[in-house]
């Protein structure tokens, strides 16, 4: 492998790069031994059969999908309908725990759900539509049905709340008990296949290497007295991602007070220079350029100097402790087979920062689901912005990224990705950051 920058032996960046090089060799061998192509998606009929099994396991009577003009982006993904599932008229698709599903479609878009199994009921006006819903869900049933919908009680999980209040009222008028589909959505949207997990691991190793190269690039320019900006390093990273077969992304490269803004992005027109004595934060998300690949999302911090001042180290150590406490909480409970929820993990991380006296400066959730998009549709590590009560289940992936932001001065965030297996967890992108990178440490 050809390195773009070559820090000398003895520097922290060099040591990290050498460790990563060995890990890369091992990862490349592992990838060679397994397929790099994502497993083929199930057919809609296979997906429906799997949903029915999940409904029986959850002791639910059915799952009712509803869409109007792309009001629910989750439905076509879960049902394997592709990008053309939405139309100009309302449709419903009811999957019972057992038996034949039902499609309710408008007469001018009667073929909209044809890829799905089940009987088709066609309506023209709203009265016919309600009659079909009543027939499917209503009074002729021998018991009150418990049906999942894309709904969240009190809007606790807004990522799931895709059905409008009026439609919820309509379905309840048929005597149906509506429950949230949050756990079902996670099962069918956020559980990675082995091939997807491998794509995440490979991307994480590449991302880790590129972030270290970015710090080395900063050091090279500083030693050469060459002017550079946040935007220059952002584009350096974007080029390296593209060269490594990953999606080109313009991520976060921030210095000094800009690091106190968690969503600061430099642009060609608006950016700051990077100089000796600056504190630098890199936060990049990307994935392999192949179908079904899973993202990696990592944040590292560095200081443009030979040693890191105590004011930065002090805050970093608190953030690191919060990150590691949350990680160990997940690891311990997964190993012991105990059920935990995303909100609980957030409480652990946030508690460390609160006890250190910086609770008000931790202004976002601890982490988010990671899938084919940087922010996926599984459990978030959140009891702050939302109250995420979803369970952490095998096969999901999420970030843990606590931060402390001192407005007008600087902010520190440390982000890792966690994959949950059956009896343990895996923190990808190793080795994770344990100290701020001293970018100009003597060689």
List keywords for this structure.
15 strands, disordered N terminus, 443 residues, 16% strand, alpha/beta, 10 helices, four-stranded mixed sheet, Creatine Amidinohydrolase, Chain A, domain 1
Could you please describe the fold and organization of this structure?
With 443 residues, this protein is an alpha/beta fold. The protein has 2 domains: 12-34 and 193-438, Creatinase/methionine aminopeptidase superfamily (Creatine Amidinohydrolase), CATH 3.90.230; 44-189, 3-Layer(aba) Sandwich (Creatine Amidinohydrolase, Chain A, domain 1), CATH 3.40.350.10. The chain is 35% helix and 16% strand. The chain has helices at residues 12-33, 44-57, 74-78, 126-137, 165-172, 182-189, 194-223, 230-243, 310-335, 342-355; strands spanning 62-67, 91-96, 102-106, 119-123, 146-149, 177-180, 252-255, 279-286, 296-303, 397-400, 403-406, 410-413, 416-420, 425-428, 437-438. The chain has a 6-stranded mixed beta sheet. The protein has a 4-stranded mixed beta sheet with strand order 7-8-9-15. β2 (91-96) and β3 form a beta hairpin. The radius of gyration is 25 Å and the shape is elongated. Mean pLDDT is 91; it is low at 1-7 and 17-39.
SSE order: HHEHEEEHEHEHHHEEEHHEEEEEE
Count of beta strands: 15
Main sheet: strands, sense, barrel: 6 strands, mixed
- Rounded to the nearest angstrom, the radius of gyration is 25 Å
CATH class of the largest domain: Alpha Beta
| CATH homologous superfamily title of the largest domain | Creatinase/methionine aminopeptidase superfamily
Count structural domains: 2
Strand residue content: 15-25%
Outline type? elongated
Strand order of the largest sheet: 4-3-2-1-5-6
- Structural class by sheet pairing and helices: alpha/beta
User: Helical region count?
Assistant: 10
């Amino acid at each position: 492998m050809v390195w773009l920058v070559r820090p000398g032996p003895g520097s922290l960046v060099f040591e990290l790069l050498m460790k990563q090089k060995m890990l890369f060799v091992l990862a490349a061998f592992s990838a060679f031994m397994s397929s790099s192509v994502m497993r083929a998606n199930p057919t809609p009929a296979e997906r429906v059969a799997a949903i029915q099994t999940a409904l029986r396991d959850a002791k639910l009577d059915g799952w009712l999908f509803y869409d109007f003009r792309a009001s629910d982006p989750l439905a076509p993904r879960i049902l394997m309908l592709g990008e053309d599932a939405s139309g100009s008229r309302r449709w419903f698709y009811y999957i019972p725990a057992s038996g034949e599903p039902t499609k309710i479609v408008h007469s001018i878009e009667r073929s909209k759900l044809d890829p799905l199994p089940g009987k088709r009921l066609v309506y023209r006006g709203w009265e016919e539509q309600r009659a079909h819903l009543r027939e499917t869900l209503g009074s002729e049933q021998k018991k009150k049905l418990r049906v999942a919908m894309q709904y969240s009680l009190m809007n606790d999980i807004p990522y799931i709340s895709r059905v409008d209040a009026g439609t919820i009222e309509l379905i309840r008028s048929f005597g149906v008990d509506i429950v949230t589909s949050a756990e079902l959505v996670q099962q069918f949207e956020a559980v990675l296949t082995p091939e997807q997990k491998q794509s995440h691991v490979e991307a994480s190793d590449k991302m880790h290497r590129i972030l270290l190269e970015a710090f080395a690039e900063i050091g090279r320019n500083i030693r050469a007295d060459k002017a550079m900006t946040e935007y220059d390093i952002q584009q350096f990273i974007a080029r390296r991602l593209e060269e490594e077969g990953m999606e080109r992304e313009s991520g976060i490269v921030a210095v000094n007070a800009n690091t106190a803004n968690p969503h600061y992005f430099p642009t060609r027109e608006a950016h700051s220079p990077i100089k000796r004595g600056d504190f630098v934060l890199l936060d990049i998300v990307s994935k392999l350029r192949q179908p079904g690949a899973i993202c990696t999302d990592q944040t590292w911090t560095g200081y443009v100097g030979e040693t890191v001042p105590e004011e930065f180290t002090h805050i970093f150590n608190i953030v690191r402790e919060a990150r590691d406490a949350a990680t160990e909480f997940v690891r311990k409970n997964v190993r012991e087979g105990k059920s935990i929820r995303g909100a609980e993990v957030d409480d652990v991380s946030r508690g460390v920062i609160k006890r250190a006296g910086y609770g008000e400066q931790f202004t976002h959730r601890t982490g988010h689901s990671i899938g084919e998009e940087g922010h996926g549709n599984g459990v978030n590590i959140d009891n702050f912005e939302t109250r995420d009560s979803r369970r952490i289940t095998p096969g999901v992936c999420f970030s843990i990224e606590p931060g402390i932001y001192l407005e007008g001065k600087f902010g520190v965030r440390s982000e890792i990705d966690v994959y949950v297996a059956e009896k343990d967890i895996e923190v990808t992108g190793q080795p994770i950051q344990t100290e701020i990178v001293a970018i100009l440490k003597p060689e």
